[in-house]
Each structure stands twice: as C-alpha cells, then as structure tokens.
Amino acid sequence: MEVETMLMRTDPFRELERLTQQALGTTGTLARPSLMPMDAWRDGDNFQVEFDLPGVRPESIDLDVERNVVTVKAERPPRENQAELLAAERPRGVYSRQLVLGDNLDTENISASYDSGVLTLRIPVAEKAKPRKISVATTEGKQQAITA
Fold first, then answer.
1. Complete DSSP assignment for 8-72
2. Domain assignments of the chain as residue spans, ordered by start
3. Closest Cα partner for 75 from 59, 46, 99, 95?
4. Sorted alphabetically, which Gene3D superfamilies does this protein's record hold (predicted)?
C-alpha cells in the first residue's frame, strides 16, 4: 500500500497556499505560518511521521485527534530583543498542520515523542487492515491457507 493512500489525502489548495508563502516569503501577523516540514513512511505495521519544529518548546506542542484527523500545533516564541532584523525567514508564532488518516490506521494508539526539534508520531496499522491467512477447503477435504 502507498503511504499517501494510508496516511493522508492531499489538499491542493493548502499546498498552493504553502508554496505561495514560500515563494513570496510572506511572514508576519497577517500570514498564517504553515511551514512545518514533514517526512512520513511505513515501517512494518506502523507509520512514522516526523515534523521539524526547531526552536519550539515541548510544552507548546499540542496534538489532537478527532475521528481520522490529527492536528499538530506548535508555537515558536517571538524574538525577545527589538534589534533591527536583516533577515526573517523563520516565521514565529503558532504553526499548525493536519493529517487526514485513512481508516486503515489505528488512531486510538498513536504515540508521540519530541527530541532535538523533531516531533515523531507513530501510528499503528489497524488490525483489520493487516494481511491475514484464510483457510480454504478443497473438494479433496484438504485445507489450504491463502493470504487475504
């Protein structure tokens, strides 16, 4: 199974907004910071998702699961000094990103950890989505296992 079909469906409008913000370099109070780079992959019976959140305190991270949608919110604090900025490529404030999970993932058993600026989610594949053996009777009375 492909990662995208099990993990999330792409929202083309959100992706277009993200690309526009990157290209124009829009940061500040009117732009909604949405840059939260992510990698996702399947490792056996688990999906693993990593979000880059440099400069974010662990206590500012908020994870919510509602039905099959995981929302990740984090906050990078404002700069403490008022020095004149020469470059401001790292947006500050609240970041959020949503993942729409397929029905074949177990949202009841998601685990999360945060280390060195990387938030890691582990999402197990639901039991109903795992391959299983089914015995098929033959006319000779023998049983044969077939993977479903």
1. ----HHHHHHHHHHHHHT--SSSS------EEEEEETTEEEEEEE-TT--GGG-EEEEETTEEEE
2. 3-147
3. 95
4. 2.60.40.790
Q: Model confidence over 82-106: pLDDT tens digits?
A: 888 888 777 788 888 999 998 889 9
Against a cut of 0.90, is the pTM above it?
no
* Residue 145 bridge partners (DSSP): 135
Q: What is the DSSP string of 62-78?
A: EEEEETTEEEEEEEEPP
First to last CA, the chain: 14
Closest CA to 77 of 51, 58, 98: 58
Report the CATH architecture of 3-147. Sandwich (2.60)
Instruction: List the structure tokens of 39.
Output: 């990698």
Pairing of strands 93-100, 62-66: unpaired
